[in-house]
Amino acid sequence: MKITDLRRERIADRVRVSARVEWEDCDQPGRDVFLETTERCGSSLNVNPDTFLVGCLVPAMHLGEKRVAIDAAVCPELLETLETAMALLHTWYGSRYQPLVIETAGVRMPAADRPERAAIFLSGGIDSLSALRRNLQRYPAGHPSRVRDAFLVHGFDIGGVVERGLKYPVFDRAVQAMTTVAEEAELELIPVYTNLRHLCDERELWLKKFHGAVLAAVAHGFTSRIHRVELASTWDLQSLAPSGSHPLLDPLYGSSELRIYHRDVELRRIDKLRIVSDWEVAFQNFRVCLQNVPDRLNCGWCEKCVRTMTGLVAIGKLAETRAFVEDDVSHELLDRTQMAINHRDPFYAELIEPLRQQQRDDLADIIVEKLAAGSERGL
């Protein structure tokens, strides 16, 4: 893979940084990859070669490239940690993921006037909202690790899957909901648009190997503004498995100018639900749904919605949020939900006892039965 022609330009009412990607060992077409943000935030978006190296490396490994050659100077600390990242992916996923040779036009010294400002990725889901809440509770105003910026990324879940379309109205609605949260938290909400995911639009690649790297790539684009970014954990320590975002992997995408913190891995999902439910503005505006339906934040029927709703039933809070139209989970709705796929079973297993404490044995029994059936099938 060759990465060339790094540039910054204005596209309509957005500021864009981009690079040309050409494949060498597979038959993928060349394309421009980019980050964009609004004109209001455009002065903070810089042409950082680290962005494109981090954002392109995993697809290059996945599709059998022998090297990544970038026509720019790269942070030497990043080059070193990427060797470990590639070795980790190889250990997790075997011979297909061979470490690549990385060729650069040299190495780059860190900027002399590096900022002391922290950011977080704020999708609007339970993980990211609880992570933001804990950051604000732990770091006082003025501390360099207190979050002051929040990135909401188009091309991640919204607009990330080519066949589903770009869905800009859905993203605009998510921005509106998170603006309410950001205003109360005294954050700058920064919308970012990228097509890095489209380098290889395979779901398995995205979930298990790639999505953390895309977030890191976005953050590298703003190192003139921030020195640290927080990524919310997905699984707790007891449930950890190889994933595209992982406490061992994410920090390896950082550099001497950017520290990446994978936070809250000690918390279970139900713990995070309790944190968000105690923060009113977040509890009324969270967005967990990946269906991106046009008329509501959360569809109420997809697996992720049903799982979150069931968790809220388990803590006695579902009827108190406007984020779902529904105020209960029926036996039929939970029974048709696939639980033992993509390592989701730990999220359901932790709900069994809290549901029983809420006198919802009907729901607890379904989870027990479905997890047992999945275990017998080897899922």
Would you kindly provide a written description of the structure presented here, covering whatever features stand out?
With 379 residues, the chain is α/β, with parallel strands linked by helices. It contains 12 helices and 10 strands. It folds into 3 domains: 2-103, no CATH class; 118-263, Rossmann fold (3-Layer(aba) Sandwich), CATH 3.40.50; 288-376, no CATH class. The chain has helices at residues 49-62, 76-93, 126-138, 168-185, 203-220, 269-277, 280-283, 303-314, 331-335, 345-349, 352-357, 361-376, and strands at 2-11, 14-22, 31-38, 67-70, 101-103, 118-121, 147-154, 188-194, 228-232, 259-263. It has a 10-stranded mixed β-sheet, sandwiched between helices. A hairpin with an 8-residue loop joins strand 2 (14-22) and strand 3. Helix 3 crosses helix 6 (269-277). The longest helix has 18 residues, at 76-93. It is globular. The model has no long low-confidence stretch (mean pLDDT 95). This is 7-cyano-7-deazaguanine synthase (Queuosine biosynthesis).
Please sum up the structure shown:
The protein has 379 residues and is of the alpha/beta class. It has helices spanning 49-62, 76-93, 126-138, 168-185, 203-220, 269-277, 280-283, 303-314, 331-335, 345-349, 352-357, 361-376, and strands spanning 2-11, 14-22, 31-38, 67-70, 101-103, 118-121, 147-154, 188-194, 228-232, 259-263. The chain has three domains: 2-103, no CATH class; 118-263, 3-Layer(aba) Sandwich (Rossmann fold); 288-376, no CATH class.
